[in-house]
Every structure is written in C-alpha cells, then in structure tokens.
TrEMBL record:
UniProt entry keywords in alphabetical sequence: Cell membrane, Membrane, Transmembrane, Transmembrane helix, Transport
Organism: Streptomyces sodiiphilus
Protein name: Sugar ABC transporter permease
Subcellular location per the Swiss-Prot or TrEMBL entry: Cell membrane
Family of this protein: Belongs to the binding-protein-dependent transport system permease family.
UniProt xrefs under Pfam families: BPD_transp_1 (PF00528)
Domain ABC transmembrane type-1: 109-327
Transmembrane segments: 44-67, 108-134, 146-167, 247-268, 311-331
InterPro entries: ABC_transporter_permease, MetI-like, MetI-like_sf
Length: 339
C-alpha cells in the first residue's frame, strides 16, 4: 500500500497569527480591554447619571429637613432650655403627656381649625369663581391674571400691617363703613370671633389669586370637545360648570384643599403681626386667636422651653400626616363609588 506524506506547512502565517514573542497582543485582540472599559463607562453613565442629577436635592433635603426632623424628635424627649441647649434632661414622653393635658394646646388647636375653615372655604370658592371667569376670553385677561397673583407676591408683613390698620378699633376703615349702617364699634383684636375673621381676611386676600391661577391652569387643560358636547345637549353654562369643569379639575381641587390645610396648620405671621406687640405672641390677652405656630413660638422663645416647643412641632407634623391619611382614604372611597 502506497502512503503519501504531505509536505510540512509553512510556519510564517501561523507564527504571524500567534503574535510576536513575549505575549504582546496587537490588532483586535488589543482593543478588547479598551472596548470593555468603554462599555463599563457607558453603563455607569446610563445608570448613575440620573442619580447624580437628583443627588443635590437629597443632600439639601437631608441637611435642612430630615436631620432637623430627627433632631427635633430627640429634643422633644428632653427638658431643654434655650439658654443652655447643651444641657439636657431625659424625660421620655413626659412632654407629650403634658401637652395632651394642656388646655392651651387644645385651645390653639381649636383656633387653628376654626381659622383654617373660615379662611379656606371662602378662599377656594372665590378662587374657583375667579378662575371660571378668567377661563373665558375677556379683554385684558392677562392683566387680570397678573393682578390676581399680586397679593401672593406681597410680603406677609406688609399685608398684615395694612389689614391691622383697616380693622383698627377707633380709626379703622371697616368700623367706619359699618357705622354707616348703625353698627357699633367692634374691637376686632380683643374678641375671639372678630379677631379670627380679621385674620382669615388676610389669608383670603393673599391666597385667593394663587389658587385661582391653579384652577385656571387645570381648566385650560380640559378638552374643548367636552364643552361642545355639553352645549349640543342643551347644557347651560352653570350646568357645564358643574358637570364638566368641576369633575375635570377634581384632582386640583383636592390638591388646593391639602395645600390650604397645611398652610392653616402653619399659620404664624398673620396673627403675630395682628396682635401688635406682646399679645401677638400669646394670640390675644386670652389666647383667643393663638394658633399652633404661635404656641410653638411662645414655648420656645418666650418661655425658653425648647423641649416643649419641639413637642408642639411634632404635634403639628403628626396632624399633617393625619390629614394626608384621611385625604387618601376619602380619595379611595370616592374612586370606588365612581366605579
């Protein structure tokens, strides 16, 4: 049997493919580590860039909101005086028990609730009507929109001072106007309900235009074909407002209610300036219009009890959480009923 032997292959190409001695890689093999590094940087860029952009907010929030919240909760468990903040005496929940039994706290809570209702309900109703008027094509609508926002841009101090002069007992414009109809002079600052009505007028004046612009923005987002369909069905403007506009801006209405509730809970500047002096801190001689914000200020910066002030602050915080939970419960109940 004849056998054939093939000649040995040339070593040149094989050695060229293997690369030069010493293990150095060239060509595509040398670019693979660099390409892997580029892929890794690309993945990090896609994954970490969003967190890098939002990191400043969380850093500022942690420094100026979250840390003070935790520190306030820790201070509320101690007896701490303003003059000696470094000296603390552990009390546990004694400050909260004392606050629960304090009649002044419940009076401030009731005043906060009543002023909130007196100011919020008319404010949102007026804002809703104003936004409905601005939603139509009126001459000079841009001017009226800017004018509606002007009270919000006004300083709370300036607004409170002006309204304090308007509601002044002896020379105020309100008492002069009421005297034309035979109404006796009203001491707006000394009596409970007149004082709360006067403070509510300040809040209504400042925030009605702001809420009106929120409602206006929500109304302009409602599709026009809904109004056209309602008009074809014979609905009047009032029926269109009830059946088209109100359901279309329902979420905005809930948002403004929650926002107004938070603002009412934190009410401070208006009653403080309205009191014109020491009575402003205590909310009147008999605490007739003292809010939770004024009670916090009195405990911390007049009585020098920072532990009690921190307890009031946490009571306000828990109250806002309760309002938020109730709002979510009502929202779920209404959504189920609509289904």
């Amino acid at each position: 049997m004849a056998t054939s032997t093939s000649p040995p292959e040339a070593a040149g190409p094989k050695h060229a493919a293997a690369g030069p001695p010493g293990g150095r890689r060239t060509g595509r093999d040398g670019d693979r580590p660099r390409q892997k590094w580029r892929n890794l940087l690309h993945r990090l860029d896609l994954g970490a860039a969003p967190y890098t952009f939002i990191a400043p907010f969380f850093v500022i929030f942690a420094a100026f909101s979250f840390y003070p919240l935790l520190y306030t909760s820790w201070i509320s468990l101690h007896r701490v005086e303003l003059a000696t903040l470094h000296s603390r005496e552990w009390l546990g929940f004694a400050n909260y028990v004392r606050l629960w039994q304090d009649e002044q706290f419940w009076n401030a809570l009731l005043n906060t609730f009543t002023i909130g209702v007196i100011s919020t309900v008319p404010q949102l109703l007026m804002a809703l009507g104003l936004a409905h008027l601005l939603n139509y094509h009126l001459k000079g609508s841009a001017f009226f929109r800017v004018a509606a926002l002007t009270p919000y841009a006004t300083s709370v101090g300036a607004a409170a001072l002006v309204f304090t002069m308007i509601f002044e007992r002896d020379f105020g414009m309100i008492n002069w106007f009421l005297s034309l109809f035979g109404v006796d002079t009203i001491d707006w600052e000394a009596n409970k309900w007149p004082a709360q009505i006067a403070i509510s007028c300040i809040v209504i004046w400042r925030w009605t235009g702001y809420n009106a612009l929120l409602y206006l923005a929500a109304m302009q987002a409602i599709p026009k074909d809904r109004y056209e369909a309602a008009a074809i069905d014979g609905a009047s403007r009032w029926q269109q407002f009830r059946q088209v506009t109100i359901p279309g801006i329902k979420t905005t209405i809930v948002f403004t209610i929650v926002l107004s509730t938070i603002g009412a809970t934190q009410l401070f500047g208006e009653p403080l300036i309205f009191g014109q002096g020491p009575n402003g801190i205590t909310g009147g001689a008999e605490n007739q219009y003292q809010t939770l914000g004024l009670l916090l200020y009195e405990e911390g910066w007049r009585n020098y009890q920072m532990g009690r002030a921190a307890t009031v602050a946490w009571a306000m915080f828990l109250l806002l959480i309760l309002v938020f939970v109730l709002q979510r419960v009502f929202a779920r109940i209404s959504s189920r009923q609509e289904r």
